[in-house]
């Protein structure tokens, strides 16, 4: 397998994995700059025979909002969104996410990222938040984040019906146990070892004795992904769509 | 149409903005007044407090790089697929700007409080986020209708001025915004609203029920300028796509102040 086709199949695996975890959702929303979650949500919608609603920020076509940017947050507050995606420059073992910066002290962090977006709200209010971060490394998965854009959990008196459901990376998929406040390794992507995950994760997590391999995309999924990316994602993520198209040719 | 003082040139449009103003600008997909941004930079305004609704892009990065901005209130500054705003990063590192990190719904809610003329508004979420510790204009209070239900109170955001780009204006100065309702929120909340439009149409949008609901009535607007392709290099609805070459070149050039200045000089003279 050459490098381009291996990168392409990794992306397809991630998209399929996201689609599987969205099964049964009525309405999935996708934030800005999230091409893989966007593709996963559109794939899930296709698999649901279009009974699932998908709203992608920044899209004219995949977006029924008529009340401006505030509508996404109002929908979330009312419980009208079942699933959402968040990432982070850093994510720690308590599910805290950091989209602001790392090193030194705020606001003069050594490394600064764009900012918290809607995370300090959506993480509390959307029941299923899927954490997605391709890079699986100790600089991302840290013992404790340098800045909490949004906490993974809150004390009992804080109004909160949402939080982390799972964490998907380039290497594996974790679930989040809300009672124990910790991640559990659910599956390893093909060819990845537990040792590799342990070496690249800065927080501790639990795992079953025998760890399953992440399920590969079905034939139907593969076909759908190719047409989705070419026909639908190019509107919102032109660079990503170009990159994928180059893989198809390559 | 010329007799109506609401229609002005781009250069005159920015005369409504003064040093030190709190100026609200929309996100990249809502209609960013990029042509007017050239005039803002030429006017060399100082000490602006920009409120990005709810995030900022190339416009915010340019205003920061050109030295117009002293305070940035935003949920993020990003060029999307082209990376984080390079001039924003540098200004933050050099301690040249005060950063008011926010979260998208808090910016919307603050503006909505201003729309209603109320001093603050409660919002869910946020408690436990480090954002809260850095905001003296956000406070945790108690839900007065319940027991032990802490909730965040946000001070209203009342911009001195907002500036954005929209599809069209009619001859009365009503502005058609379509689905970009953020522009209506901006105008309702701000003391002064400045608009650039693709075109002026000899019509009355308010007399047409199909358009009236997606129209910002002239009562909110202080001045309007025609700026054809006025959101370029950003995409503008179905009208035109983003200029990928421009955005790529900017993201590279603006990595250094010298590169940024050269890029802007050539953009201003184009």
Provide keyphrases for this structure.
heterodimer, A: 250 residues, alpha/beta, Glutaconate Coenzyme A-transferase, five-stranded mixed β-sheet, three-stranded mixed β-sheet, 12 strands, B: 270 residues, 2 domains, nine-stranded mixed β-sheet, three-stranded antiparallel β-sheet, 9 helices, 29% helix
Write up what this structure looks like.
The complex is a heterodimer of chains A (250) and B (270). Chain A is 31% helix and 18% strand. Chain A has one domain: Glutaconate Coenzyme A-transferase, CATH 3.40.1080.10. In chain A, helix 1 crosses helix 2 (35-47). In chain A, the strands form 4 sheets. A 5-stranded mixed sheet of chain A has the order 3-8-10-11-12, with helices on both faces. A 3-stranded mixed sheet of chain A has the order 5-4-9, with no helix packed on it. In chain A, strands 1-2 form a two-stranded parallel sheet. With 250 residues, chain A is α/β, with parallel strands linked by helices. Chain A has helices at 3-21, 35-47, 70-77, 119-125, 194-199, 219-231, 238-249; strands at residues 27-30, 53-56, 83-86, 90-92, 97-98, 101-102, 111-112, 128-132, 141-142, 164-168, 172-177, 182-188. The radius of gyration of chain A is 18 Å and the shape is globular. Chain A is built from 7 helices and 12 strands. With 270 residues, chain B is α/β, with parallel strands linked by helices. Chain B folds into 2 domains: 10-119 and 156-269, Glutaconate Coenzyme A-transferase (3-Layer(aba) Sandwich); 120-155, no CATH class. Chain B is 29% helix and 23% strand. Chain B contains 9 helices and 12 strands. Chain B has helices spanning 10-13, 34-43, 58-65, 86-93, 104-116, 182-189, 209-212, 244-253, 257-269; strands at residues 22-26, 48-53, 69-74, 98-101, 120-123, 138-142, 150-155, 161-170, 175-176, 193-201, 215-216, 223-226. In chain B, strands 1, 2, 3, 4, 8, 9, 10, 11 and 12 form a 9-stranded mixed sheet that branches. Chain B has a 3-stranded antiparallel sheet with strand order 5-7-6, with helices on one face. In chain B, helix 3 packs across helix 4 (86-93) and helix 5 (104-116) crosses helix 6. The longest helix of chain B is centred in the middle third of the chain and has 13 residues, at 104-116. The mean pLDDT of chain B is 96. Chains A and B meet through helix 3, helix 4 and helix 7 of A and helix 4, helix 5 and helix 6 of B.
């Amino acid at each position: 397998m050459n490098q381009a086709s291996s990168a392409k199949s990794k992306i397809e695996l991630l998209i399929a994995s996201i689609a599987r975890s969205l099964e049964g959702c009525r309405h999935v929303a996708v934030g800005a700059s999230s091409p893989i979650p966007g593709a996963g949500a559109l794939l899930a919608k296709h698999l649901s025979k279009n009974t699932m609603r998908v709203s992608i920020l920044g899209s004219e076509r995949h977006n029924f909002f008529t009340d401006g940017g505030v509508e996404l947050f109002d929908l979330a507050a009312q419980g009208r969104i079942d699933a959402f995606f968040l990432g982070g420059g850093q994510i720690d073992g308590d599910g805290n996410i950091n989209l602001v910066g790392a090193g030194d002290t705020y606001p003069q962090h050594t490394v600064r990222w764009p900012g918290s977006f809607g995370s300090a709200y959506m993480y509390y209010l959307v029941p299923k938040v899927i954490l997605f971060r391709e890079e699986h490394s100790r600089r991302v998965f840290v013992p404790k984040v340098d800045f909490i854009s949004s906490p993974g959990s809150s004390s009992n008196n804080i109004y909160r019906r949402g939080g982390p459901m799972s964490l998907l990376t380039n290497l594996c998929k974790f679930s989040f146990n809300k009672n124990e406040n910790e991640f559990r390794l659910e599956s390893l992507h093909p060819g990845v070892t537990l040792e590799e995950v342990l070496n690249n994760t800065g927080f501790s997590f639990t795992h079953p004795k025998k760890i399953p391999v992440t399920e590969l995309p079905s034939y139907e999924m593969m076909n759908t992904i190719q047409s989705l990316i070419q026909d639908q994602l190019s509107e919102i993520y032109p660079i990503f769509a170009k990159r994928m198209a180059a893989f198809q040719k390559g | 149409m010329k007799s109506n003082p609401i229609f002005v040139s781009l250069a005159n449009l920015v005369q409504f903005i003064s040093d030190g103003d709190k100026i609200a600008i929309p996100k990249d997909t809502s209609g960013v007044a990029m042509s007017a941004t050239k005039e803002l930079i030429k006017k060399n305004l100082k000490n602006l407090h920009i409120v990005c609704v709810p995030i900022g892009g190339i416009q915010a990065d340019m205003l920061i790089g050109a030295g117009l901005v002293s305070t940035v209130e935003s949920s993020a500054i990003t060029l999307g697929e082209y990376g984080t705003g390079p001039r924003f990063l540098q200004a933050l590192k050099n301690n040249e700007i005060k950063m008011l990190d926010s979260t998208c719904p808090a910016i919307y809610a603050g503006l909505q409080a201003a729309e209603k003329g109320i001093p603050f508004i409660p919002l869910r979420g946020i408690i436990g986020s480090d954002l809260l510790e850095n905001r003296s204009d956000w406070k945790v209070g108690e839900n007065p209708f319940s027991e032990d239900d802490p909730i965040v109170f946000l001070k209203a955001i009342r911009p001195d001025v907002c500036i954005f780009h929209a599809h069209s204006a009619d001859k009365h100065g009503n502005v058609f915004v379509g689905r970009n309702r953020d522009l209506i929120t901006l105008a309702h909340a701000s003391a002064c609203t400045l608009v650039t439009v693709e075109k002026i149409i000899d019509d009355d949008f308010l007399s047409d029920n199909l358009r009236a609901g997606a129209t910002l009535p002239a009562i909110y607007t202080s001045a309007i300028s025609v700026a054809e392709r006025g959101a370029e290099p950003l995409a503008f609805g179905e009208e035109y796509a983003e200029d990928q070459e421009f955005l790529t070149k900017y993201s590279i050039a603006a990595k250094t102040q010298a590169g940024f200045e050269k890029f802007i000089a050539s953009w201003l003279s184009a």
